[in-house]
Design brief:
- The protein has three domains: 187 residues, Gyrase A, domain 2; 67 residues; 36 residues.
- The protein has 13 helices and seven strands.
- The strands form two sheets. It has a five-stranded antiparallel β-sheet with strand order 1-2-3-7-4. A two-stranded antiparallel ribbon has the order 5-6.
- Helix 3 crosses helix 4, helix 4 runs parallel beside helix 10 and helix 9 crosses helix 10.
- Bound molecules: flavin-adenine dinucleotide.
- InterPro entries: Thymidylate_synthase_ThyX, Thymidylate_synthase_ThyX_sf.
- Its cofactor is FAD.
- Its EC number is 2.1.1.148.
- It comes from Roseovarius mucosus.
């Protein structure tokens, strides 16, 4: 359970209030505001605030005086044109602010995306909760034999049980020591900023994360992708769902041109042209390395 009853009550109270504004709002996003959507075993994603909608992208692109939406089809077409031609700054006019609760090892991957504004829960000031990410049994996978940066089939039987036991016991023992060190009962109590150093990377942290739509889509392109680690991918997929409701035209263009599209190198494009003319092209005659050819075949054959 990621939220305490008090936290739930705070969110309900916030959702019960409404404010009138002259600013544009996105009906699709209003329904999600403040709600915590669970991710992993103790994590969540929730929208704290947002600015702009599809019309704001159009308005910025046209530098117009009005709301932007005059002809719905033109607006969608313009957004698709902007996405197709990497005209990115109109997408930067929309902003999203999220509250995210996530394991520290996921946060380390996430924070590499430098084009966002972050404020993290302070473990110098506050005591961390006893909450650790323990993978579901089907996510407890073996090291991949083909990809050093990936995982293979799920661990089975006694090995799976032993790994789960180790993860749980280590987390609990470290937290017991953490509590023991910071306790001020009968001792001075170690500073929180020092005591936290023995906590494992599967402990949960929280942050507020604000980013513009252009850089958010870049994040989602990389982290909702099948190559991303499962534990960050599930957060990205949850955010994709929110973005699809917030800016439906922009999200559809993103799905079509970024997530579902592919970049072809000049040699790869030349191969496609030769194939269309009926030539049988192989890796040896393609001018591409084995790795490039493998990836090219992946693009041409589609998902397995
Ligand atoms: C599948 C996967 C595997 C990865 N493996 C590793 C790994 O093994 N080791 C590792 O260290 N990282 C790894 N990363 C992280 C990756 O290298 C990037 O750091 C991360 O994805 C952030 O991307 P970004 O820099 O484009 O994003 P952002 O920091 O959000 O930047 C967005 C864009 O802004 C521009 N930009 C931002 N800051 C600068 C700057 N200072 N100078 C110039 N341009 C800038 C760039 O165009 C950049 O693409 C991996 C990422 C993925 C998705």
């Amino acid at each position: 359970m990621p939220l305490s009853p008090d936290q739930k009550a705070e969110i309900d109270a916030q959702r019960a209030q409404s404010h009138s504004t002259l600013r544009a709002t996105a009906a699709g996003m209003e329904q999600h505001l403040y709600t915590a959507y669970p991710v992993l075993d103790h994590g969540f994603v929730r929208v704290i605030d947002y600015m702009g909608d599809d019309a704001a992208i159009v308005q910025a692109a046209r530098v117009s005086y009005g709301a932007g939406t005059k002809h719905v089809q033109n607006d969608e077409g313009l957004i698709r044109y902007l996405m197709r031609h990497w005209h990115s700054t109109p997408f930067e006019m929309c902003e999203l602010k999220l509250h995210v609760k996530l394991p520290v090892f996921v946060a380390r991957q996430w924070i590499r995306h430098r084009t966002a504004n972050v404020n993290e829960y302070s473990a110098r000031y506050s005591i961390l909760d006893r909450e650790f990410y323990i993978p579901a049994p089907d996510m407890l996978a073996a090291q991949s034999t083909t990809n050093n940066q990936g995982r293979g089939a799920a661990l089975e039987g006694e090995e799976a049980q032993r790994v789960l036991r180790i993860l749980t016991e280590d987390a609990m023992r470290c937290y017991d020591h953490y509590e023991g060190m910071i306790s001020q009962e009968g001792q001075q109590g170690l500073a929180r900023e020092l005591a936290r150093m023995n906590l494992p990377a599967n402990i949960y942290t929280q942050w507020y994360w604000k980013v513009d739509l252009h850089n958010l889509l870049h994040f989602l392109r990389l982290r909702a992708d099948a190559h991303a680690q499962y534990e960050i991918r599930v957060y990205a997929e949850e955010i994709c769902r929110l973005v699809a409701d917030w800016v439906p035209y922009a999200y559809k263009a993103f799905e079509d041109y970024r997530m579902g599209g592919a970049n072809l190198s000049a040699p790869a494009l030349e191969c496609v042209r030769r194939m269309l003319k009926g030539e049988v092209v192989t890796q040896e005659t393609s001018g591409m390395s084995k790795g490039e050819w493998r990836e090219f075949e992946g693009v041409m054959n589609g998902p397995a």
